[in-house]
């Protein structure tokens, strides 16, 4: 089956982000993709709580979500809406960073709220405090489709291998990692971490990414990646917006795991 990864530069203009996402879905579908994926915070990327407050809605009222569901249905493709920032009923008024799997009928098949928050000071000039804007999730999700089981994760989750191991051990064949990686950590860690998750689990790893200058203050690494269960990088989306098409063979999941069955070799141990 063919997948399409949409790489884009979402910023603070929701309608422009929507146009880019829909154009990406259409381009991927024309290119033969049956499963199309968009990056983290497809709908709005902003460091300002005030701007987010004005632009983000509750899931039930989210027109961005409705528009993408309609587009999935019109094209008859599966869509992983990598994430949307949506309002929640959190007492502190925080948003959720929520991934949606949408069926070719336009229905929401699964939702996943990002579990691990990027509260990191990279250097003197660059620090992030995601948990002050977003309420972390607390549920791992394996979604069932008619082509594969999908373990849903988001961006910084990538650094917590136990989550991926459990998703794979619960049946995931494809792991999704929609992201908005920082340029500095992206250059140092992105490909290595994605390849490690694929090799450890024997899963396909699909990682659609934000790229370029998203806002005055934020830029992102790009390099949407598809990694095979044996660990090869099958495609790299580079640094510009665009669509990356790749054919997956899900038999390769079984094959990689048959060659090195480490996923079934966990042992209990004491300590440290
Ligand atoms: O801010 C938003 O609206 C959406 N959230 C993000 O973009 C998040 C938190 S700032 N980005 C990451 O998790 C990057 C992780 C990363 O770069 C790493 O692990 O090195």
TrEMBL record:
Cited PANTHER family: DEAMINATED GLUTATHIONE AMIDASE, NITRILASE-RELATED
Domain CN hydrolase: 1-250
Record protein name field: Carbon-nitrogen hydrolase family protein
GO MF term (any one): hydrolase activity
Entry's family note: Belongs to the carbon-nitrogen hydrolase superfamily. NIT1/NIT2 family.
Highest classification ranks of the organism: Bacteria, Pseudomonadati, Pseudomonadota, Alphaproteobacteria, Rhodobacterales
Entry-linked PROSITE patterns: CN_HYDROLASE, UPF0012
UniProt xrefs under InterPro entries: C-N_Hydrolase, C-N_Hydrolase_sf, Nit1/2_C-N_Hydrolase, UPF0012_CS
Pfam assignment, any one: CN_hydrolase
Highest taxon, organism lineage: Bacteria
Keywords: Hydrolase
Key word Chloroplast present: no
């Amino acid at each position: 089956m063919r997948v399409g990864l949409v790489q884009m530069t979402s910023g603070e203009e929701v309608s422009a982000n929507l146009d880019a996402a829909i154009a990406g879905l259409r381009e991927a579908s024309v290119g033969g993709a049956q499963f199309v994926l968009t990056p983290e915070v497809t709908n709005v990327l902003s460091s300002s709580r005030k701007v987010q407050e004005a632009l983000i809605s509750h899931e039930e009222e989210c027109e961005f979500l409705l528009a993408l569901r309609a587009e999935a249905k019109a094209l008859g493709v599966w869509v992983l809406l990598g994430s949307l920032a949506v309002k929640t009923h959190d007492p502190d008024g925080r948003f959720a960073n929520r991934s949606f799997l949408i069926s070719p009928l336009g229905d929401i098949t699964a939702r996943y709220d990002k579990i691990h928050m990027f509260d990191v000071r990279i250097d003197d000039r660059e620090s992030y405090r995601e948990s002050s804007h977003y309420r972390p999730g607390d549920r791992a999700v394996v979604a069932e489709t008619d082509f594969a089981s999908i373990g849903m994760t988001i961006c910084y989750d990538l650094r917590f291998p136990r989550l991926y191991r459990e998703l794979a051990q619960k049946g995931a064949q494809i792991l999704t990692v929609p992201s908005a990686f920082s340029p500095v950590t992206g250059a140092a860690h992105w490909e290595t971490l994605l390849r490690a998750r694929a090799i450890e689990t024997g899963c396909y790893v699909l990682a659609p990414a934000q790229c370029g200058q998203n806002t005055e203050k934020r830029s992102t690494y790009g390099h949407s990646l598809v990694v095979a269960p044996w660990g090869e990088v099958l495609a790299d989306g580079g640094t510009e917006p665009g669509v990356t098409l790749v054919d997956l063979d899900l038999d390769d999941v079984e094959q990689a795991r048959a060659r090195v069955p480490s996923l079934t070799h966990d042992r209990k141990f004491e300590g440290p």
